[in-house]
Specification:
This protein is α/β, with parallel strands linked by helices. It is 32% helix and 23% strand. The protein has a single domain, classed as UDP-N-acetylmuramoyl-L-alanine:D-glutamate ligase (3-Layer(aba) Sandwich). The two termini are 26 Å apart.
């Protein structure tokens, strides 16, 4: 196998807008700052994971408007781009509005990814990897990816992110969850996951999946299995400027730990350490740490 990780999800352009506060309906407010950044859940994850030494393949669909400089940035980090396909349509675009308290509203144009169910199966990012990360995108497409991964005996991590609230129904969600080894989500996403499996606790999710990872923002995170519940402390950043992309960075750090053979608790601390760097600057890919950087912060909380 060439890569440890194959990542399916969005590669997008992010427009990050800073506001004094989020406006109420039918009102307006002055913009404090706006910037364009490289983004998308898959784009953020693969670039960070590759920076941390994880051999990573990216599987996604973009339009002809996809910036050459973004492609070069991914290639420079060593990301395998064989499955980054250009198809008719526009590259996905996100507008993220954040206030001074860290509250956010995101508006997302799916672009080429809205029609992904009709695009070809990107086999290289399943066949030639150890772990398949199924992120944001169309459930009907990912059911095909999961079936191929199962057929080839590849491990699956399921991470629908914010799309769990408006893309997934119970049947598709349970079908993907039951094929996965790892499931990632924040508190709101885990709550929705429980509703989709008609459960009331994380234990109900563990009837379908082996490991549930819950990110809790400034409260740290939890890694839960059928036999243990591991509380992961927050690794404190030097400052908090923009929390956009912290979750993607967390996952990259978690995978960097898995690839090096660390236990789940250590993986969680490494994940938290990676996220602590990303929130220090505006933009999801503007302050990516090296592995040495991550270890230096993670060692405040555990031995590595």
């Amino acid at each position: 196998m060439k890569n440890f990780l194959g990542v399916f999800g969005h590669v997008a352009m992010d427009y990050i807008v800073s506001l004094p506060e989020l406006p109420s309906p039918n009102t307006s407010i002055e913009i404090l700052d706006r910037q364009r950044h490289f983004g998308g859940t898959a784009g953020n994850l693969v670039r960070t994971a590759a920076r941390l030494g994880v051999p990573t393949s990216l599987a996604s669909f973009v339009g002809k408007d996809f910036p050459d400089e973004y492609r070069r940035a991914l290639r420079t980090e060593g990301v395998d781009l064989r499955d980054l396909r250009t198809v008719p349509g526009a590259t996905p675009t996100a507008w993220v509005f954040s206030d001074r308290s860290g509250n956010q509203i995101a508006l997302f144009d799916q672009g080429t990814m809205k029609s992904a169910s009709g695009w070809p199966i990107l086999r290289h990012s399943v066949r030639d990897v150890e772990l398949v990360h199924i992120g944001t995108g169309r459930p009907e497409y990912y059911l095909k990816i999961a079936a191929l991964a199962e057929e080839l005996d590849r491990s699956i991590a399921f991470d629908p992110s914010q799309e769990i609230h408006y893309v997934y129904g119970p049947r598709a969600f349970r079908a993907l969850l039951s094929r996965a080894t790892y499931f990632f989500g924040n508190e709101a996403e885990i709550a929705q996951a429980r509703r989709l499996v008609r459960g009331s606790s994380t234990a109900d999710l563990l009837r379908h999946v082996d490991v549930v990872v819950v990110t809790l923002g400034a409260k740290g995170s939890l890694v839960v299995t059928r036999s243990e519940r591991i509380r992961i402390p927050r690794v404190r950043p030097k400052k908090v400027v923009d929390v956009t992309g912290a979750g993607d960075a967390y996952r990259a750090g978690f995978y960097a730990g898995l690839r090096r053979g660390y236990d789940l608790g250590q993986c969680g601390i490494l994940a938290s350490a990676v996220a602590s760097f990303v929130v220090e600057h505006r933009g999801t890919q503007t302050n990516l740490p090296t592995w040495a950087d991550v270890l230096a912060r993670a060692r405040r909380h555990a031995s590595f």
